[in-house]
Amino acid sequence: MAVVSVGVRPQVVRDLPLVAVAVVWGSSFLVVKRVAEPETVVAVLALRFGVVLPVLGVVAWRRLRGLSLAQWGGGAVLGVVLGAVFLLETYGAVHTSATNAGLVISLTMVFTPLAEAVLRRSAPSGAFLAAAGLSVLGVALLTGDGGLRAPSAGDLLVLGAAVARTVNVLATARLRAVRGVDALALTWVQLAFATLVFVSAAPFAGPSPLSVAASFDAARWGLLLYLSLLCTLFAFFVQLWAVRATSPSRVSLLLGTEPLWAALCGVLLAGDRPGPLALLGAVAVLAGTEWGRRRAPRWPAGS
Q1: What's the half-sphere exposure (Cβ side, CA atoms, 13 Å) at 234?
Q2: What mean pLDDT value characterizes the chain?
Q3: EamA domain: from which residue to which, for each copy (predicted)?
């Protein structure tokens, strides 16, 4: 017994932070619904990222000084794309259920390998295509309740966010200007330019970030800090640590449980009650994205 526990415990300890990231990411859709309203989405995003930037900047300062102009430019491009991802995702989350948002966004896991295959002109396996088809069918059942209603505007916005996430992943992997750039420095640049997108859009999209911050009570500030410190800052540092402490496949496996936690939070905490066909769709999304993630083609990094 003692020998087994000594061997297992270090792996469990390494896995727990990744599971925690998957849980907080899954819960973030519900938190967004409770901290943001349709007219305050942009202001909340500016505040969420604005809280993180100074903390991350202190840690990344020396590495940022070593970036070239081209690397700053590449990071800026990725930051604008990241800003689009969060705008679509957050607007979508406030217009649909937490369960739907968390499951629809998981389509990124099948969209990304499909898009990569198109760019490489390489056909994915039949098993992966079947998994992708199962995921898409699941989303159709989930958001349309088996064809009984049209998908909501929120569902479509989150679907757009999944496409934008795919663009962000592919751009990060293929943009030459950011290849080999320090991950901490690149993350700060992306977050900074995404924040610039939100601040620039704020005058045209509702109340200012400062007025929204002043209107928050203690509960909403707690939710905002949850999004900033746990869903953003904590998640980033855990991923940075995990790629050195465990295998990429294990990181992918554990972080890939995010949609499961999103569904659980939606049902258990938000009171989402999907109908029978929508529930079947949710199961199909979870099964299809997990199957697709395992069957996705693997290509050498940077190739």
Answers
A1: 16
A2: 85
A3: 18-143, 153-289
DSSP 273: -
How many Å apart are CA 161 and CA 29, to the nearest integer? 13
Q: Residue 18 corresponds to which tokens in the numbers above?
A: 């990744």
Distance CA 107, CA 259 (A): 10
- Single pTM value for the model: 0.86
Smallest CA-to-CA distance from 254 within 13, 92, 4, 5 is with 13
Tokens 């995404």, located at residue: 194
Q: DSSP secondary structure string, 227-243? A: IIIIIIIIHHHHHHHHH
Single out the residue of 235, 216, 236 nearest to residue 224, CA to CA.
216
Residue with the larger pLDDT of the pair 301 and 260: 260
Please calculate the CA angle 35-48-142 and round it to the nearest 5 degrees. 55
Sign, CA torsion 224/226/228/229: positive
